[in-house]
Design brief:
Blueprint (H helix, E strand, L loop, with lengths): L5 E4 L3 H10 L9 E4 L1 H7 L7 E5 L7 H7 L8 E5 L5 H10 L3 E3 L5 H30 L11 H18 L3 E8 L6 H14 L5 E5 L3 E7 L3 H14 L6 E7 L6 H18 L3 E3 L14 H12 L2 H27 L7 E6 L3 E8 L2 E11 L2 E9 L4 E9 L5 H27 L1
Parallel strand pairs: 1-2, 1-3, 3-4, 4-5, 9-10
Antiparallel strand pairs: 6-8, 6-9, 7-8, 11-12, 12-13, 13-14, 14-15
Helix pairs in contact: 7-8, 9-10, 11-12
Length: 427
């Protein structure tokens, strides 16, 4: 039996049937089927539709989009949302989850069929792109994510770089690498997966020598490149960090010169740890016997393996772990503690979380300059009493949950003592 390639999913069967009757399909190979949500969850995993018309009557049903996108047969299918909800939060969430278009429940038949034709066309284009990508990976020009293999990266990037100079006003050429302390094939796999989630389909990525990644970010300026770098950092696990260097390609017309300059700037980023730097000005003439970038990179590796580098690297990682927890707890307790100062202070050896009102003060000091141990000092000074406590954790034990629990305990104790003092003053 022939499978329907256009599927309407709705828990309102009468509406779905009426909606199906409006659809005019131009291709003889197209046919329409109707399913409810429960049936769709079991059927779609073994079905290969071109288009899903998803009728949503409430916000909870939007979660089905995320579920269906995990089905291997449905990954490339177009999804057209049908709903009478036009609230911006609802629609933004739907597009974030993966819909391709939106139409009102009572849409005009002409508009409806135009949207359907567009979604089917988009699916066809996606299939053609996937086929080309598969063929390129089959002959090992690209990997499974469509990123160019080392053998082809420099050639492809040099050609594309020349096209970008005339076609696009803003394009960023970026070189990205795992930081030296975590550089490994496993880290590179993690970074590649993170890139796949963050790069746009139009951007280009390629593998380069020394386990680096070359990127061309189209229609992007320095501000946009920094935001991309930050997004990438945010989804990487705690033990993996990256550094990058970049140039706006209009700064120089020669790809080879740009490549050498960005590689040189990358050494500065790796020295700073988990940072991005931009090539601002380009030399008019590059020396003929300039040192090969990869040799310079290798020297940089050896030169950075010292205590100062490791401490700076560890401090960066600790800030990346602690700062979100600090901000979260600050946001929770500022409304609860009226006219109270809540402060955060970071430096290369320690970070402090301070809660203060008049003569009442609680302070948490997290010290991370002693090998693999994390030391925590908690000092509490109230009107009639004070307290000091010391804790110690290994790096493996230390986590954002532990930080939040410690801050919560200290903040709750501060709140109780503060209100106790204020009640005594009233009496």
């Amino acid at each position: 039996m022939k499978e329907n390639n256009v599927i309407i999913i709705s828990d309102n069967k009468n509406y779905a049937d009426k909606f199906a009757a409006k659809i005019l399909l131009l291709r003889s190979s197209d046919s329409v089927g109707v399913m409810d949500y429960k049936k769709a969850k079991t059927k779609l995993n073994n079905h290969r539709p071109d288009l899903i018309l998803l009728h949503c009557e409430n916000t909870e049903q939007l979660n089905f989009i995320k579920e269906v996108k995990n089905f291997s047969n449905v990954k490339t299918a177009s999804i057209l949302l049908i709903s009478d909800n036009r609230e911006s939060d609802f629609l933004c969430r739907a597009f974030d989850f993966g819909i391709d278009d939106f139409i009102d429940e009572e849409a005009d038949e002409t508009v409806l069929n135009m949207r359907i034709m567009w979604c089917l066309k988009k699916k066809l284009l996606a299939d053609l792109t996937h086929k080309k990508s598969y063929l390129l990976s089959l002959i090992e020009v690209t990997d499974k994510n469509g990123y160019f293999q080392k053998t082809y990266t420099q050639m492809i990037f040099e050609r594309e770089y020349k096209k970008c100079l005339t076609r696009y006003d803003d394009t960023i050429f970026m070189i990205l690498s795992a930081d030296i302390r975590c550089k490994s094939p496993q880290a590179n796999n993690i970074i590649e997966d993170a890139l796949f989630k963050n790069l746009r389909k139009s951007d280009i990525c390629g593998h380069a020598p020394d386990e680096k990644f070359y990127l061309l970010l189209y229609k992007t300026d320095e501000k946009g490149a920094k935001k991309f770098f930050q997004r990438l950092n945010n989804i990487l696990p705690f033990e993996t960090s990256v550094s990058a260097a970049a140039i706006r390609i209009s700064s120089v017309e020669n790809f080879k010169i740009a490549e050498k300059s960005v590689n040189k700037k990358l050494i500065e980023s790796l020295t700073s740890v988990n940072s991005i730097n931009f090539v601002k000005t380009m030399p008019k003439n590059l020396p003929q016997n300039s040192e090969d970038t990869d040799i310079a990179q290798e020297k940089s590796k050896n030169g950075l393996a010292n205590v100062k580098y490791l401490q700076k690297d560890f401090a960066k990682r600790m800030e990346k772990l602690i700062s979100p927890a600090f901000f979260k707890m600050q946001a929770i307790y500022e409304p609860k503690l009226f006219n109270t100062d809540i402060l955060q202070v970071f430096n290369s050896n320690e970070c402090r979380f301070i809660i203060k009102k008049e003569n009442n003060k609680s302070e948490i000091v997290i010290k991370y300059n002693n090998g693999r141990q994390i030391g925590i000092e908690i000092t509490e000074n109230f009107k009639f009493k004070s307290n000091k406590e010391e804790l110690s954790f290994s790096q493996e034990e230390f986590s954002s949950d532990k930080i939040e629990n410690i801050i919560q305990n200290v903040a709750e104790k501060f709140r109780k003592n503060l209100y106790k003092n204020e009640d005594e003053n009233i009496l």
